[in-house]
Amino acid sequence: MLGIIGAMEVEVESLKEMMENQEILKRAGMEFYKGEICGKEVVVVRSGIGKVNAAICTQVLIDVFQVDAVINTGVAGSLNPEIHICDIVVSTEAMEHDMDVSPLGYEKGVIPDMKTSSYPADPNLRILAKSSIKAAGLDVAVFDGKVVSGDQFIATPEKKDMLCKLFGGDCAEMEGGSIAHTAYLNQVPYLVIRAISDQADGKAEMDYPTFEKKAAENSVKLLVEMIRAY
Ligand code: ADE
Questions:
Q1: CA-based angle 168:74:65, to the nearest 5?
Q2: What is the per-residue pLDDT for 12?
Q3: Does residue 228 sit in helix, strand or coil?
Q4: Is the beta carbon of 7 within 6 A of some atom in ligand 1?
Q5: Ligand 1 in reach of 207 Cβ (< 6 A)
Q6: Rounded to the nearest whole angstrom, what is the distance from the C-alpha of residue 155 to the centroid of ligand 1?
Q7: What is the residue with the minimal CA distance to atom 2 of ligand 1?
Q8: How big is the CA angle at 86 (ends 209 and 155), to the nearest 5 degrees?
């Protein structure tokens, strides 16, 4: 069974609408929608925004629903000049960019005493995403990319630059890194799919509301084809 997380309602509402044999279970203040999409068993949940909500949500999917894999769908700010608004990023890896123990001599982004602080996405889910692009009938480009996550909305060129240069991020959002971290600790495969709603720059607060819905829909379009083929 696939676990599907979106932080916001706009990121999961159409998945809930297309779900059959729906059953709703509440855990940790979140509503988990269990049912079938394209004849496949899935659990769809809105985690709420930010790394803590997303980590707790992932752990519930793993412990309570015993999902075989976790996919995060949603929107993100682009950090890569080649990746434009409404394009899609399929994660190669994901990390938490606001982890900072540098006063103690660790590099920024490094979590002390962890084997890694950037978590590779599941290769099979990445292949599934690639092979689902055509069927999704998208009018945008799909990129492989590194997802960097923090409890911050990125909306200045300085911060954007820092995330590019220091971490090599391709898109910034607020949950993927913690979902990846939780999946890694539990040895559960994961993938992040994010469509671009803004460019994480000085125009981000204007672009975001304009493109949020279209971007969220693009991410879901690719995800639905992945579910169909899963
Ligand atoms: N999600 C969408 N755009 C974002 C941004 N610029 N920063 C963080 N999360 C986002």
A1: 110
A2: 98
A3: helix
A4: no
A5: no
A6: 8
A7: 76
A8: 50
Residue 58, helix vs strand vs coil: helix
Predicted confidence at residue 193, as pLDDT, reads 98
Q: Measured from the CA of 212, which atom of ligand 1 is nearest?
A: 2
The 10s digit of each residue's pLDDT in 46-70 is 999 999 999 999 999 999 999 999 9
Q: Is 153 in the pocket of ligand 1 (CB under 6 A)?
A: yes
The whole model's pTM is what? 0.98
pLDDT in tens, 20-47: 999 999 999 999 999 999 999 999 999 9
* Dist. CA 189 → ligand 1 center (Å): 24
Which is it for the CA torsion 99, 101, 103, 105, positive or negative?
negative
Residues sharing a CB contact under 8 Å with residue 125, sequence separation 6 or more, in sequence order = 69, 71, 189, 190, 191, 226
- Which is nearest to 182 in space by CA: 17, 75, 72? 72
What token pair was written down for 14? 């159409």
What is the C-alpha to C-alpha distance for residues 93 and 190, in angstroms, rounded to an integer? 10
Q: Determine the average pLDDT of the residues in 180-200.
A: 98
Residues classed as catalytic: 11, 198
Integer distance in angstroms from the first to the last C-alpha of the chain?
Answer: 10
CA atoms within 13 A on the CB side of 26: 1
